[in-house]
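Example 360.
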Amino acid sequence: MARLSQEKINEIRQSVDIVDVIGEYLSLQKKGRNYVALCPFHDDKNPSMSISPDRQIFMCFVCGTGGNVFTFLQKYLKISYIEAVKKVAEIGHVDLSEYHLDVVSRPIVKENVPLYQMHEEAQKIYSYYLNTKLGLEAKTYLMKRHFSDELIKEFRIGYAPLQATLYQAFEKLGFQEIDMIKSGLIVESYQHFDRFQDRIMFPLYNQQGQVVGFSGRIYKPTQTESKYMNSPESEIFIKGQTLYHYHQCKEAVKEAGFIYLLEGFMDVIAMYKAGIENTVAIMGTALTKGHMQALRRLTHHVRLCLDGDQAGQAAMSKAARELEEAGFQVSIVVLPEGHDPDEIYEEHGQEGLHEVLKKF
Ligand SMILES: [Zn+2]
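Predicted structure in complex with zinc ion:
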């Protein structure tokens, strides 16, 4: 088996620009010949990390963390040196197929693999059912609410039918019962059954874009259950780290130079209908450090757009204060009393929503 020579490692390092690689994870500002960013390795308030394109290194003047592109990825993604080298080779299109670099995957990740697989599978099954006779009424409801086919595809919206479907499918695919229950998709009772039944299903993603949970919405006037039901937290679904639409908004945020922080995923979809894509939503929790770390990787400018009701206002000023303390530039979008973007879109359409947002 060929070993990676120092020469090959240098070639890999030189195949990328450290500025591009770090820029994928942090929001960079040009300062003279260098770039600066808020340091992700300590609780940074002013950009203390400097990245030098000339020397291809980074350095934080406060906590002292520094090194080359491999060091950054190792520390930032908490991966091994060899994993970092592989990752850079991938970015720089350096062929490593003659080297058999077996990377030992971390046990915790390995354990979670079936949970990710089940969510991916569930998403496909729900999508399928939306286009069957069983999902017809749900589909009709979505059409009435201005969900185009393109939008349904973009957000991978589906339908969980009344009869249990996931349990049988998971069993056929050979998943263990213990994992099914851990996933939160199957509920254990006198018999196993699907948590979500007769609901319109919205997949929820982690920051890497993997499906980790769902939100199910009722759609018939006769349904008396709670309007939305979310997956319970699990090994892979952690609300304090979940920002809906995070993995899909990067380009739009870069272009706009700021991000809208919204209250719920339906608001993200309403904004999308109005052509606004630089948005993320928290999933029914207060703003956490984990959320802020994720936001920091995209931009320093946040427009807070939480509910116009009283509880929303209080949550908003708290979130604004915390964001400012963490070094963000924050502006607050006050929506007309008691309204969220989704309701404004429903009542006043694309123009109406643009009109409200334009004021800020
Ligand atoms: Zn630092």
